[in-house]
Amino acid sequence: MKASVFFFANVIFWCSACSPAGMEKGVDHDNEPPQIIFDTDMGPDYDDVGAIAVLHALADSGECEILATVASDAHPSIAPTIEVLNRYFGRGDLPIGKAPQGAPDFTAKNGWNDTLINRYAPELRDKNYPDAVSVYRQVLANQPDHSVTIVTVGFLSNLSALLDSKPDEYSSLSGVDLVKAKVKQLVAMAGGFPEGNEFNVNRHAEASVNTFNKWPTPILFSGFEIGAKIFTGGKVAARDDDGPVTTAYDINLKSYTKDGASNRQSWDQTTVLVAVRNPSDYFYVNGPGKFEVNEDGSNTWDPATDAGHYFISHKYPYQHIADAIEALMLHTP
User: Fold this and answer.
1) How many C-beta atoms surround the C-beta of residue 11 within 10 A?
2) pTM score > 0.85 for this model?
């Protein structure tokens, strides 16, 4: 979720708070740590840095396993930034994929991605990364059926291309059939509830429409209104540490906006949190229903149609969740 203009109703569904059988099965992981593919735009905003820090912290505690990390923004600094952060957390061998042709291609005006790459791994500027769809297909083909949780906190460019992909050397299945066979659930920072016009969805609206209309497994949404109320990062920026997470927050809290900030919204971190841990421990889970996407990327929620879609809404004071997230963001390898 990034800086843009958003339009959504200022209403949250406090009713229908539930843990329906299908979604509960999708989040309890059958007592096995979730196997995560992390899909991020890592650049237009910097909550992605907090999200990948949370993900690595949870992996270090044995709560999940990271299978791959892929870029949904085609700007050439995005994949190297992901690798800088993976290396910092001791997982420099994780597969990384670059966004497909036609994906949004831009980053923040203050150039924080370039700063991180230049400071920590300038040699990555010339690295050629494989296409994200190839990474997806290879990784998914090697996993047990119904075992993978995909976490997307950026554009839907990769997932749309994955669904449209054809059989290849990794799998004889089409993209839709491969996802249906291997993926347990999709957890997405996308949209606004009960309606909205949100950045991750509307910046590549065609891909969003294709993805959410075709996706064959349960989807759990963390909407714009969730992370917008949860502020983190100040403690990370203030600590005595020269790692890339601290550097990214220190730079961006000072320069991402004209007047600076003491903390930043936590859209992407909430998504990782509920993908790995039981979302009902932190939020109400609403649904099933259907996430409807219009051609312009705006969305509405249809509670009368069971498409296997769910969304979270607030149940704790915002600072309670912020404290849980920032504690994970403060993790060091």
Assistant:
1) 11
2) yes
Q: In what order do the strands lie in the sheet with 219-222?
A: 96-97, 65-71, 35-40, 148-152, 183-189, 219-222, 309-314, 283-293, 299-302, 195-196
Q: Are strands 309-314 and 283-293 parallel, antiparallel or unpaired?
A: antiparallel
Buried b (16+ CB within 10 A) or exposed e, 174-201: ebeebbebbbbbbbbbbbbbbbbbbbbb
Q: Residue 12 and residue 199: Cα distance in Å, rounded?
A: 19
Through-space distance between the first and last CA atoms of the chain, rounded to whole angstroms: 26
Please state, in angstroms and as integers, the Cα–Cα distance from residue 128 to each residue in 96, 140, 178, 195, 221, following that order.
10, 22, 26, 39, 32
Residue type, 75: H
Confirm if 197 and 7 have CB atoms less than 8 A apart. Answer: yes
Task: Name the stretches of the chain with pLDDT < 70.
Answer: 1-30
111: left (phi over 0), alpha (psi -120 to 50) or beta: left
Beta bridge partners of 40: 71
User: pLDDT, tens digit, for every residue of 200-247?
Assistant: 999 999 999 999 999 999 999 999 999 999 999 999 999 999 999 999
